[in-house]
Amino acid sequence: MEHGNWLSNSLVYLAAAVLAVPLARLLGLGAIIGYLGAGIVIGPWGLQLVSDPATILHFAEFGVVLMLFLVGLELEPRRLWAMRRPIFGGGSAQLLGSAALMTGIGMAAGAGWPLALVAGLGLAMSSTAIGLGALAERNLMGTRSGQSVLSVALLQDIAAIPILALVPLLAVGSAAQHAEGSGWIAAAKALVVIAAIILGGRLLLRPALRWIARSETPEIFTAAALLLVVATASLMQSVGLSMALGAFLAGVLLAESEYRRELETDLEPFKGLLLGLFFIAVGMSIDFAVVLAHPALMAAVVLGFLLLKAGVLWALARWTELPLLERPVFIILLAQGGEFGFVVFQAAQQSRVIDAPTASFLVAAVAVSMLLTPLLLLVADRWWVPRLALREARQGAPRPAEISEPQAAPVIIAGFGRYGQLVGRLLNANGLSATVLDHNAEQVETVRRFGWPVFYGDATRLDLLRTAGAAEARVLVLAIDDVEQSLKVAALARAHFPQLTVVARARNVTHYYRLRQLGIEAIERELLDSSLMSGRRVLELMGWQPHAARNQALRFRAHTIELIEQMAPHLGDEQKLIALAKQGRQQLETMWAQERAEQAALRNRQGWHGEAGGDQRHD
After folding, report:
1. Are 505 and 487 in contact (CB under 8 A)?
2. 482 — phi, psi (to 5°)?
3. Is the C or the N end of the chain the one with fewer CB within 10 Å?
4. Taking the mean position of all CA atoms in its chain, how far away is CA 86?
5. 500, 526, 552: which is the final residue of a domain?
C-alpha cells in the first residue's frame, strides 16, 4: 500500500511539474511560479491529489541544500573571505533592522513582546531557495545584486542557531529558560562542528575523492558527491545549524579542487528536481482557510512586512552603492518571507511562545509572500526598471559621457565585450587605431581602467555613428552581442555609409542569414573558429599530425561556409534545407574517403608505412 502511495505521489508531482512549468514559461511567468502554481492546484486547496504537503516539504528542503553546495563550489575560500563585509555587515543590517522595526510595530499594535519578537525574527528571514533560484534563472548570480542577495542569505543561515536558541528562552516558565549555559553549550557544539567540517575538508576530502575517482565508476563518484552533501548537512543539523550552511561550507572547500566541475555536473540534475519539488511543496502548504478567514488582516500583514523590509533594503542598497537598475531585484528577492520562517514559527509553537492559530497565520503570510515574489519580479521588469532607466537618463545619473568630439580612426568597433576586445587588441598590436563604442556604462568604466580609450555611446544612433567618424572610416567591426541591435546598426551602415565595409559577428546561423539579407558579406560566426580549434586539438590527441589536423580544420571551415551560402536562398523551405544539409554531409564524407584512398595509394607506391610527415596519423 505504501509502495502504491509513493508511486502515485511521484506520478502527481512529475505530471504537475511537466505541465505547469512549460505553461508558466510560455506565459512569461518563469519556472518558479509554475512550480508554486502546480503545488496549489494539486494540494489540499486544489484538486486534493496530495493531502500531506508537510512531509514532502521536509524532503524537498534537500534541494536548497544542494543548491547552496553548488553555490559554494563557485566561491573560492579567498573570494568568500573577501565577502565577509557584505555578509556580516549588510546581512546583519538587513536582518536586525527588519526584525527591530517589525517587533516595534507588533508591540505598538498590542502584541506581547515575545510574540512580536518571534514574528519579527521569522518574517525578517528571506527565502534562499526562491532568491538564488530566481538569480540563477535570470543569470544574475555574478552581478553585484546577485552577490548581495547571496551575502544576506548566508548571514541568515549563520543566524539560524542563535535565533532557534532564543525562541525557547522566550517561553515563560519553560525548562529551557532556566537551563543554565544551554545557549553557550549549543554555540560551542556549533563551532566544533564547523571546525571539523573545515579541517576535514582540507585534510580528507580531496584524498577521499581521488581514491574514489580511481575506481573509474561514475555512479559511485555521484554517490560519493551525494554522501558528502548529506553528511555535512546532517552534521550541521545535529547541532541545530542550517543544513544548507554546512553544504555551502563543503562546496567552498572544494571550489579549488580538480573535482569541482565533475561534482557540479553530477549534482545539478538532483538540485533542479528537488528545488522544483520544494517549490511545489510550498504551494501545497499555503493554508487558504487561514487566508480566507481573515483576508483583510492577511493582506495588511503581508503588505506591511514586505514594505518594511523593502524600506530597510532600499537604505542598505544606497549605503552599499548598489547600481540603481539592480536594486529592484535585490529588494524583491529579500523582502519576501522565507522557508526558515516556517521553522521559527513551528519552534515557537512547540515552546508555547505563540499559539497554533497564530503560528498557522504567520506561516500562511510567509507562504503568500513567497508566492507573490515571482509576480513582483514581473511587475518590476515591466514597470519599475524601465522607469529607473528613464530617470537615470533624464536626471543625469553617473555614467560615462557620450562620444561628442568627431573621431577620425579608420576602424570603428561597435561593442567591446569579450568578442570586440579580442579584435581591438589584435588591431592595436599591429599599430591600427580604432574608435570603440559601447552602450554598457559599467563595461566602459571597467575597460577604461585598463587603459582602453572606449567611448560611451549607442551605435544604433545615426548621429553617434557620424561623430565616431563613420563617414570617413573604412571598416566597421560589428561586435554587438544583442542580435536586434546588431541588425539595426548594420542597416544604418548600409543605408548611410556605403563606403564602410562591415565586418560582423553572428551569434548563430539565423543571425548570419539576416545579416546576409542586409548585404553584409564579411560575417564570422562567433563560435565557429573556436570550435574548430577544439576539434583540431582533438584530432592531434587522437594521432593526427599537427599540420594534417590544421588542414582538415581549414577544409571543414571552408566547406561549412560554402554550405551555409548554398542554403541561404532557401530560407523558410525546411525540406530543401534538410536535403542540402544531408547532401553537404555526404560530400564531406566522400571527399575525405577519396583523400584517405589517395594517401593509401601513395604510401603503397613509395613503400612507406606512415612514419613520414605526410600521413594524417601516427600509426
Report:
1. no
2. -70, 125
3. N
4. 20
5. 526
Which of 526, 559, 582 terminates a domain? The answer is 526
Rounded to the nearest 10 degrees, the angle between the axes of helix 260-285 and helix 2-26 is 100
Q: Torsion over CA of 132, 138, 144 and 150, rounded to 10 degrees?
A: 0
Do both 513 and 548 map to the same domain? Answer: no
Pair 541, 518 in one domain: no
Could you tell me the CATH number of the domain that includes residue 406?
3.40.50.720
Q: Which three cell numbers stand for residue 539?
A: 584530432
- The three cell numbers of residue 148 are 548581495
Asked if residue 310 is part of any domain, the answer here is yes
What is the C-alpha separation between 93 and 124, in angstroms, rounded?
11
Which residue is it, cell 556605403? 498
Residue 381: burial class (beta carbons within 10 Å; 0-12, 13-18, 19+): middle
Instruction: Report, in angstroms and rounded to the nearest whole number, the Rg of the chain calculated over CA atoms.
Output: 30
β-bridge pairing 454-456 and 475-478: unpaired
Query: Torsions phi, psi of 454, nearest 5?
Result: -100, 140
At 500 the three-state DSSP class reads coil
Percentage with pLDDT > 90 across the chain: 3
Tell me the one-letter amino acid at 319: W
Q: Which three cell numbers stand for residue 132?
A: 538564488
Task: Give the domain range for residue 607.
Answer: 537-619
Instruction: Give pLDDT tens digits for 515-550.
Output: 888 888 888 888 888 888 888 889 888 888 888 888
Place of cell 551525494: 226
Size of the chain, expressed as the number of residues it contains: 619
Q: What does the buried/exposed string (b/e) look like for 261-293 if buried means 16 or more CB atoms within 10 Å of the residue's CB?
A: ebbbebbeebbbbbbbbbbbbbbbbbbeebbee
pLDDT tens digits, 538-589 = 988 888 888 888 888 888 888 887 877 777 666 666 677 677 777 777 776 6
12 shares a domain with 97: yes
Q: Locate 345 and state its grid cell.
A: 514559527
Residues near 331 by beta carbon (within 8 Å), at least 6 away in sequence = 310, 313, 314, 317
Q: Which residue is listed with cell 563550489?
A: 73
Query: To which H or E segment does residue 298 belong?
Result: helix 295-319
Q: Across the beta sheet with 501-506, what order do the strands follow? A: 454-456, 434-438, 411-414, 475-478, 501-506, 522-525
Name the residue among 151, 39, 173, 20 with its Cα closest to residue 86: 151
Question: What is the distance of C-alpha 393 from the center of its chain?
Answer: 28
pTM > 0.85: yes or no: no
